[in-house]
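Q: C-alpha cells for this one, please.
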Amino acid sequence: MTSRSDDIRLGADIGGTFTDIALDVRGTMFSTKVLTNYAAPEQAILDGIDVVIRDAGISAAEIGIIIHGTTLATNALIERRGARTALVTTEGFRDVIEMRTENRFEQYDLNLQLPTPLIPREDRFTVKGRIGAEGQELQPLDEAALEEIADRIAAGNFGSVAIGFIHAYANPGHERRARDILARKLSIPISISAEVSPQMREFERFNTVCANAYVRPQMADYLARLQTRLKDMGADCPVFMIHSGGGLISVETASEFPVRLVESGPAGGAIFAADIARRFGLEKVVSYDMGGTTAKICLIEDYAPRTARTFEVARTYRFSKGSGMPISIPVIEMIEIGAGGGSIAWVDAMGRIQTGPESAGSEPGPACYGRGGKRPAITDADLVLGKLDPDNFAGGAIRLDTAASEQAILRDVGERLSLNAMATAFGICEVVDENMANAARVHAVENGKNISDNLMIAFGGAAPLHAARLCEKLGIDQCIVPRGAGVGSAIGFLKAPFGYEALASKLTRLSRFNAAEVNALLADLKASAEGFVRSGASGKIVCEITAFMRYAGQGWEIPVPLADEPFGDDAVVKLKDLFEKNYQRFFGRAIEGLDGLEIEIVTWSVKATDVRPAVARHELTMGKKTGKPATTREVFDPVSGRPRSYGIVERDTLCAGDRVAGPAVIVERETSTVVTTSFDAVIQSDGAILLIRKGSRA
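A: Here is the predicted structure, written as C-alpha cells:
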C-alpha cells in the first residue's frame, strides 16, 4: 500500500472558466488546466488530478495535502443561487439590509435603484430583546416569540437561518441563546453574526451573516462531496481551504463560515505574486491576474499584499463603490473587473465597443472553443490577432476555430461598426486593455500610489497575452511572467501559510482605557486565531496585533500595528503616539490644537500565521541577445497598426540569461507571453520571463 508524503502538495483553483491544478512533487511542479464543470465542480478537480499524477508518475494516495480555493461562494452570491434563508433580527431592525447606510453611490441619478437585498422582507423575522452598545442587556430576549418563529421557519421550506441582533459584537449572549432555541426545532444550519463578523456597523454585519447563511448549505454539501470523491480515488489526505485573507483553514471551518471563501481564488494569486516579489527582492509590485472571467489587480508592498476588513461583492452600478453587497471579513485588497478571456464583447447604444462583465465561461465558452458559444469573447479577439496558436491552445487539449471567432466578431461587433475582423479584434483588445489600465490607475490612486513606480507581475491564463500592452499604457518598464503563470493562483495556494484573523469590535476611548480588560480580550482573540491555525500547522506561530483607531467623531478608522505583548501602565501614551504617527502617514499630518479631542479604538484584530521557510533569493538579470527564432507567425502589431511577423519561441527551449527581442510570442502549455515591439524578454535564473521596455534604465 502506497503511503502519502508530506512533501507532495496539490493546489486546486476553481475559476469561472478553467479549473487549475498545480502539483508540487519535492520541488518539481506539474500543472494542468481543465474546463470548469458547473454541474459538478469537483469533477474538474478530479480530472485535473488524474492528469498531473500521471505526468508526475505517482498515485493519488501519495499526495500529502490538498489546498483548494474556489469562486463557488462568490458566484452563488452574484447569481443569487443560494438557499432560501431566514433572517432573525432585533425588533425594529427588520429593514436594515434593505435601507443600507442611505448613502447614494450615484449622487445625480434621480432614478437610482438600490441593490435588492439578499433576503426578501417576508423572510425576515423580528424578536424583542436588546443589547446596549457597551454589551449590557437593556431588554431580555423574548424566548416565547423565538419558539413561534422556529415553527414558522420549520413550516416555510427554509434551507438556512441567519441571526443578527443589534450590538451582538459587544455581547453575543442573545444570539447564542436564540440559536439554541431555534436549533431544538430546526435541522438546518444556523449562522450568528457574533461568530461570522463580530464587528461594528449593523448593515455590514447583518449582510455578512446573511451571505454566510445563504451559501452555507451549498458549500457544505460541495465540500463534503469533494472529500468523499477524493477518498474514493485514493487521495485520503488532509484538505484545506484558502480564505479571502490569504491563509489556510480546515474544511470544517470553511463549511461553517463559507463567506470567508469569497475571493479565495484571487487571494491565492496575490500570495503567488508576493512570493515572486520576495524571491527577487521587489518592494513595489502590482500583481495582474487575468483569467477566463475576471481580471484582478493588487498592490504588493514590502512583499505583502494590502489587506482590508471589508469589501463588496457584485457591484451593480458601473462598478461604483457602494453599489454592491458589503462583506465584512478580512480580505486581501484588490480591484476586480469583468475582463477575462471569456468576457463578451458588444456594442452599446452609442456605437462604442464594450467588454464584459458578462462572460462566456466554460459553458458555452468563447466561439472558438466549439462548445456552442456564438458571442465574441476576448479569447476570440486574441485568436484573430494571431496571439494564440489554434492548434496548441492549452497544450493542444482544445483546438480553436479561427473562422468561428471571425464570424462571431463580425456579426456582433464588426458589421455594426463597418470594420473588418482584424480591426474589430484590435478594437476589442484595446478596450479591454484600457479598462484594465484604468482600473489599475484608480486602485493605485485610491491607495495614494503612482502605478508607474511598480514592477508588474502577470499571471493567469490570459494575463501574459495582454501584459506588455498594459505596461505600455501604464508607463511600467518591467514585467515578470513567472513559471507556471497560467496556474498562478493554484501555485499560490501552495505558498500560503496556515493563517486566521480574529476580530472583535469594542469601542474604547483612550481616556477610559483598561489594560487588564484589553489584555483579556486580546488573549481570547489570540486563542481563537491560533486554534484555527493549529488545525493544520504544528510549527511556530506568530501573531500580528492591530488596533483600528480614529479621532472621536470620525466615521472611519485607520489600522495601527502593535507589538505582540501585553499592555502595561504606559499603554495610553504608546497608543496615542502610534496612532498619531500612522495618522500622519495616511493623511500627511495629525490633528493638533483641539483641546479634548479624544482618540478611540473601534476594533481589535489578531492575525495568527505559521512561520514559512525563507525563499531562495534571485537577482534580476538583463541577459544577452539570442539567435533569430526559427518559427514566425503573423500577429497584429498595435504600434504599427498592422500584422507583423512575430518570432515564435518555445519557453522550454530557453535558458537563464537568454534574451528574446520583441516582437515575439513565447509559448508554453498553459499560456503565451506576447512580447510587443516595445519590449524584450529575458529568462531569469528561476525560469521567469522578465519583460524589459527597450531603452529603459534597468
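A few notes: The two ends are 54 Å apart (CA to CA). The chain has 16 helices and 36 strands.
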